[in-house]
Each structure stands twice: as C-alpha cells, then as structure tokens.
Amino acid sequence: MRTILYVPFNASSRGKWSLRRNADLVGQFDTREEAIRHALALTTAIRNQQGQEVEIKVEDESGVWRLANADAADADAGADSEVT
Fold it and tell me: Strands 65-68, 2-7: parallel, antiparallel or unpaired by DSSP?
C-alpha cells in the first residue's frame, strides 16, 4: 500500500501550513518546517506497518510539487530537490 503526504504551499503570512495524508487533512502548522517535521515523523510510523510505502511531496511557491527526502534527519533536507 502507498501513502502520500502533501505539504501544500501557503502564500499567506498569517495562514497555517497544512499536512495532508492522501486527501485527508492531518494537521495545520505555523511553519513549513513544522509541517515537514511532522510528515517525517508520520512517515516513520507508517513505514513501521508492514508493506507500507510513503512519499512526502512539498509544493513550492510556483506550484511545483517535489519529493522530499523522507529519510533525511533534518526536516528541511531534500524538500527543495527531487529524489531520483
């Protein structure tokens, strides 16, 4: 089974950063880094379930979705570059 976690871009300085699991809202966070950090923690929990694959996709300011490195120790690592 495959799960995709999404962190959509937030253009509002007052708005929250959302984290979605497939289409479902998981939570809202004050910063992009907090949303990604929570996605990384959630990735670990999901991967501990047998047969689960997880990807994190982060949207940049131009609307392009990129894969975040779900194995990164730093929450921001890989968020701006595509994993090959």
Answer: unpaired
